[in-house]
Structure formats: structure tokens, C-alpha cells
Amino acid sequence: MPALLELLHDQPAFFIASTTLLGLLIGSFLNVVIHRLPKMMEAEWSRHHAESRGEEIPPSAAYNLVVPRSSCPACGHQLTAMENIPVLSYLALGGKCSACKAPISPRYPLVEALAGALSGLVAWQFGFSGMTIAALLFTFALIALTFIDFDTFLLPDDITLPLLWAGLIINLGGGFTDLHSAVIGAMAGYLSLWSVYWIFKLVTGKEGMGYGDFKLLAAIGAWFGWQLLPAVLILSSLVGSVIGISLILLARHGRNVPIPFGPYLALGGIAALFWGPQLARLYLPGY
User: Fold this and answer.
1) Are the CB atoms for 212 and 171 separated by under 8 Å?
2) Backbone phi, then psi, for 96, in 5-degree steps?
3) pLDDT tens digits, residue range 99-128?
4) How far apart are CA 87 and CA 114, in angstroms?
5) Are 181 and 228 in contact (CB under 8 A)?
6) How far, in whole angstroms, is CA 73 from its chain's centroid?
7) Helix count (H) and strand count (E) of the chain?
8) DSSP of 29-95, one letter per residue?
9) Which of 72, 147, 188, 262 qualifies as a cystine partner to 34, CB 3.0-4.6 A?
């Protein structure tokens, strides 16, 4: 193990390649999180609702992030180890189940490739250091939140709240910013979108976003400080507006159909991770 650590430290190319491979493997697990966590949350809500009504809860098979094994949703074929190799298995199978030939969603290799590519960029940016581990955790959390929000319009507390606390803990020693800025960033991130939410609701009588968005921006503020919040918000709003307007003009999205904001906040968070100081200096010259 010491020899491997020394090799990773002394050979940046090997470290980046190894981290990219790790990202691909984690991306495969993120697909499980994206698919199963909302279902686990729904089952938990149903159980609590039944308990509150005094109803008897029938026993059910274990369903979590570990069991049951991954299987084809069309025919139930359990995937073998060779069918679970990130990206390569999808290409080798031609994007179809080996048993029933039902198409496999390209979402799976996309998530794996995205996790691998961003992991390689993190390794290149931060090198062989503890900051790389922290940045990888941040990146993986944002990938999971992005696709869960696309699917369900939910940003689970099971991810956003640990992410917020992790940001504060990492910045105890001045990781990405000082603790003072991180605490203010967490408060300002939450309160800024909370204020927008209530102003919009009072004016229109409608809810413009969910509470998960408040928590996600609070988490980003905890990681990078209040100084990056304007950049994150401007970038998120700009990209979200462009995509939303484009979907409407292309007649693929109704005007009254909600658009998840979490993915665009996540994009702003990734930008803060890689280019935080450069972005902040655009409006804070002394940063």
C-alpha cells in the first residue's frame, strides 16, 4: 500500500487515470442511488402514513442500495459481473438486455461517463491531496442530486443535509474557504432562495421552487463561502432560463410544466469547485 500511494503521488498521469477509473465505478453505484433512493423514500413515506392511520404494515422484501441485485426492469434478468462494467458493458451489449433484448437507457453509461470525466478533472485540478477526496464527494453528490431532480423533482435530505454539514466540517481547517465565510454562505444560500420562494408565492399564489433547492444552495454556500453565491445563482438562472425557453420554443415543454432547478444549481456548484476564485474576482476584485 505505501508503494501504491507513493506511485500515485509521484506519477500525476497515473493518479488521474486511477481516479477516472474510480469515478466510473462510483458512477455505476450512483445509477443505483438515482433509481432506488426515491423509491426508498416513497416506501418510507407510505409506511409512516400507514402507521399514523393505525394500519397493519405487511412484510416486504428488502429493498435498499445494496439489495436486491441489479436486474433488467423489463424481464427481471439479474445482471452478471461482466454486464456491470461501466460504459463498456453497455457498448458490448449494444444497449440491450442480454436476455430479452429490451433497450437499456443511455442514462446509465451517461452517468458513469460523467462521473469518470469529472473525477479525472478533479484529480487534475487538486492533485494527490485530501482536497481531491473532498471534491470527489461533492461531485458525486451533485451528480446524484441532478438526475434525481430530473426524474422526481426531489432533492433528498439524505444527500443535501450531509452535503451541507460536510462543507462546514471541511472548512473547519480552511479547506475551500474560511469557516466564517462557510457559515454565512450556508445561511445566505438558504435564505436567499427561501425569500424568492415566498415573494413569488405571495405575488402569484404559486410555488416557484422546492425546499430542496434552498438546502442545496445552502450546501454550496457551506462548501465555497458566501462570496461564490452570486456567481452560482447567476450561472444557474442563466442556464436554466436558456434551456427552459428553448424547450418551450421547440414545443417540447408546456409553459405551465415545472422545470427542476436543482440541476442548474449543481452546474453552478461544479463551476464554483473548478473556477471559484476566478468567478469571485469578477465582482470581488480583492478576493
Assistant:
1) no
2) -135, 150
3) 899 999 999 999 999 999 999 999 999 999
4) 11
5) no
6) 23
7) 10, 0
8) HHHHHHHHHHHHHHHHHHHHHHHHTT---------SSSSSPPB-TTT-PBPPGGGGSTTHHHHHTTT
9) 147
